Amino acid sequence: MKRRYLMAAAALWACAPFALAAYPYPVRPIKIIAPQPPGGAVDMMARTAAEALQKTFGQAVVVENKAGAGGLIGVSAAAKSPADGYTLVIGSTGPFSVSASLLQRIPFDPVKDFVPIARLAQMPSYLVVNANVPVSTVTEFLALVRSKPGRFTYASTGNGLSQHTNMELLKSMANLSILPVTYRGSAPAISDLLGHQVDMMIELGPQVIPHIRAGKLKVLATTSATRTELLPKVPTLAESGVPGFEAYTWFALYAPAGTPQAIVSKVHEALTKEFDGPEIRTRLSAIGAEVALTSPTELAAFQAAETKKWAAVIRQAGIKPE
């Protein structure tokens, strides 16, 4: 009897991959949570991923913006969603590799509560100042800020997000005293930056490059290791007086923990098909981003390395919760 049971169990296990491969997914609309307001880089990546999945699956894919608490509200909502493949979330550097080290408690576990699907892209940020700040180079910027400690302000979009951690890293590495002003997303932050209510910001390209080209913001440097193709005349912070500075924001797609592997594989395959094509690569390149597609396993390893990196930065910079 026991032998017969074991043989039946083995047969079922052998058939499991075929059963999963035939999993009827998707049969209804898919939702991607973007844990930031509309118009920002996270929102843009969510909509790019949604378009890619919809094109491949022939099923509606909608983006739901759930902003607040530096992305924690939206990510927490995703963690509590059914693990059926119909709710996905765009993860980024802050909520998935910084917040756990920065905050004493967050409403989810960025490793245990999610299944990695794929890293999608990465992009550098730019150090910009408003037109009233009397500098045009990083050298002038460093001298001015050091001469008036605590006098200048920078726009942040919340604890743990790149606008916060990149500036705090710069403050630590360059011995600067700049006061943070926190906003609920990039759009209101840039609005105040343009209106001279805040002095500076380290922000992603899609949000500031149009204002740079229009002459409304002055760009001093990029956070990348080398100069970007989009703004090749803009130097890096590393070559402008802050040696060793390098920071990128990355974007990835996750599903709630427990989502069937068959669904994860289908979503990954759909993303690979579209993100490997010239259309998305050209679109991302136009805003200063680059495709960085990975497997789920590679994303898990990358996320672990990023968490370790930013934990060290937070300790060394003495960054504390606001």
TrEMBL record:
Transmembrane segments: none annotated. CDD domains: PBP2_Bug27 (cd13578). InterPro entries: BUG (IPR005064), Bug_dom1 (IPR042100). It comes from the Bacteria. Keywords: Signal. Residues 1-21 form the signal peptide. Belongs to the UPF0065 (bug) family. This is Tripartite tricarboxylate transporter substrate binding protein. It comes from Cupriavidus numazuensis.
